[in-house]
Amino acid sequence: MKTRLIDLNDTELFVSGDPHAAWAHLRRESPVYWNDVGDGNGFWALTRYQDIADVYRDPAAFSSSQGTVMGGSYRSGADSASGRMLICSDPPEHRLLRQQLHQGFTPDMVRRVSACVTENVRAAVDRLLAAGGGDFATEVAPVLPAGLLRAVFDLDRDQIQHLLGVTRAMIGHRDPEWHNGRDETMTLVGTQVEILDLFAELIERRRREPGDDLVSLLLQSEINGRPMTESQILYNCLNVAVGGNETTPYTATAGVLALIEHPDQADRFARDAALLPTAVEEIFRWTSTNAYVQRTATRDVEIRGTLIGRGQSVTLWNASANRDEDQFPDAGRFDLARTPNQHIAFGIGAHRCIGMNPARAEITILFEHLRSLGVRFQLAGPIERLRSNFMLGIKHMPVTVTVTR
Ligand code: HEM
User: In angstroms, what is the span from residue 239 Cα to ligand 1's centroid?
Assistant: First the structure.
């Protein structure tokens, strides 16, 4: 494969190609790669674990304020989310916002999420077993974030379904399945407005009738002695909802696919309950749903002797770092007993995923339940991948199921 042929902005590579072959090539031949997109524009792509870790740990030189997704899923610096939404903030604003959000991400919150997710998983898996199979990606995986939304925002069933649909379209805005007659940009903008409207209404309701949900908590919190502004609350609810809704279902579906494709590991998992903790981490490493995050260079910086210009976009490919042979022996092997396993599916440093604990709980509950029932999956048709280079998602995965216990 020739380096110049690799375009990490081409969603075709992610829908029908094999991005792992492209990343492996870049790690070897061009670890600091200028991905030209024409007209003198482009972005840097880092694919080695150590380079990516170094950039994550240097927010002074590599800012998040211009947005962490190319094309603006978490809007760019020119707009109002910058400095107000956790994921698009730099120190010191980031630290102040994160302290407020942290109050909602407690062990008690993880317990409430776990209770809702357990109930949902049992019901969804029962339905799948009764039918002998179905589309795992649409019938089972989404019940994970549905449980989280109930526990964190205290939303009802209809609100949850609505929010799940809009966040899916927002993150999948490059995929025609969610266009509804609109183009990519209008899908992105329209869905963001819809999510913000939904949370604006929720804020009004919680002002009148506070509860013990995240919105009520943020309405009472203060930054430097001042209440959080409505826009800070809105943007951070959007950040939590989008961060929470899309990642875990795509991880769950890709995790089941990995078990189907590695029957030796599925057998091992079925036999040994003690594998669960390392199995969950290996599923996060292997699937790396959040393929990259973007930073913007605040000054000229050299990486491996290559000059990154001030203002240029630098993308950190977590999905590649998690298969880097220098960090993971036999990195291309799906190994449910892998240890140590310092994967960076959740990022590194100050922005490291705030939802990591509930995410771990969701994936653990699902795979433990499937294991305890002895559920085995077979593909019943072709899988369909999401047209996105940011979220490595499987949007349809027809399966049949058998129970071995
Ligand atoms: C498989 C599951 C998940 C993966 C792979 C994942 C991945 C990530 C990554 C890579 C980051 C770092 C972004 C950066 O450095 O710019 C991040 C941040 C974040 N995630 Fe997650 N995430 C997951 C689940 C969740 C869940 C369940 C929630 C909410 C309940 C969530 C909410 C957030 C938020 C709010 C941030 C921003 C944190 C900050 O900037 O300080 N994520 N996530």
Answer: 9
Angle (deg, nearest 10), helices 157-171 and 230-261: 80
Q: What is the pLDDT of residues 295-321, one digit of tens each?
A: 999 999 999 999 999 999 999 999 999
- Nearest ligand 1 atom, CA 251: 1
Decide if 28 contacts 20 (C-beta within 8 A).
no
How many structural domains are present in the chain?
1
Angle, CA of 324, 325 and 329, to the nearest 5° = 125
Q: How far is the CA of 30 from the centre of ligand 1 (A)?
A: 28
Query: How many angstroms separate the alpha carbon of residue 287 from the centre of ligand 1?
Result: 15
Distance CA 62, CA 23 (A): 22
The residue among 372, 396, 146, 126 whose CA lies nearest residue 253 is 396
Relative orientation angle of helices 93-102 and 230-261, to the nearest 10 degrees: 70
**Nearest protein CA to atom 36 of ligand 1, as residue:** 353
Query: pLDDT tens across 163-207, in order?
Result: 999 999 998 899 999 898 889 899 999 999 999 999 999 999 999
Q: Confidence class of residue 38 from pLDDT cuts 50, 70 and 90? A: confident
The stretches of 65-154 forming alpha helices (DSSP H) are 93-102, 107-131, 136-139, 143-153
CATH of the domain at 251: 1.10.630.10
Per-residue pLDDT tens digits for 260-294:
999 999 999 999 999 999 999 999 999 999 999 99
| Residue list, ligand 1 pocket, CB within 6 Å | 64, 68, 86-87, 98, 148, 239-240, 243-244, 247-248, 251, 289-290, 293, 318, 345-347, 351, 353-355, 358-359
Structural domain boundaries, residue 391: 3-403
Residue 37, SS3 per DSSP: strand
Residue to mutate (ligand 1; options 353, 366, 394; most atoms within 8 A of CB): 353
Helices (H), 223-346: 230-261, 263-271, 276-287, 318-321
59 CA → ligand 1 middle, Å? 17
Structure tokens at 46: 């880092």
For ligand 1, the distance from its centroid to the CA atom of residue 280, given in whole angstroms, is: 17
